[in-house]
Amino acid sequence: MKKMISLLRFSIIGIISVAACRHTSKTIAVHNNQVVETQQSQTKVMVDTLKTYVSTQLHISLQYPATWSQLQTVNVVNNTGTAVSTEVQFEDTLEKKRLLLIYHPAPAGGSLYQYALQQYNEGKGWYAENKKEIQVAGKKALVATSKVTKNGKGIMLSMPLKTVVVVFLDLQNTGEYEFQFTVHDDGSIDDKEFQHVLSSVKLIQ
Predict the structure, then answer these.
(1) Count of Cβ atoms closer than 10 Å to residue 68 Cβ
(2) pLDDT tens track for 40-53
(3) Which domains does the chain have, with CATH numbers?
(4) pTM
């Protein structure tokens, strides 16, 4: 009789344990950049906090934080009416971050990149210090980092501005992309958001 009671207790404990395991079990899956978590027959979807920018005019796509706003696109033309650049600005007014995407089409774009490459190799201009080379969308990209402590009138800024400039060629190697990421430098900033933007860049036909 005691053996039967012990066996019955063991069975009940086993059932409770299995039930508890089922209660706390969950399944994680990744689908279309979304994390889907199923627990107790309930589905919780965590949507990525990213937006996608796609331009067939500039032949580029990228992802940027949803907290950033995309401002008006500006087409710059010379006195003959020829487009010399297209500028797209993204801004996070809360954290005072700005990303400027500039595209210089052919033939000027290729020449501008070659000039930047020469400056990079000679350590001049933007590339006098804090320079490095990375890959963006499979292209060789030149990176320069600078810090501004005074405004145009020579007055000290309350907080320095840090700017990271990245340039690389387009698919045809005849035009140039230029990224300018500017942020107030309080000594504790990081460039993780900008690095994600760069890693997400795709060049399209």
Answers:
(1) 22
(2) 333 333 245 899 99
(3) 2-46 (no CATH), 50-203 (3.40.1000.10)
(4) 0.73
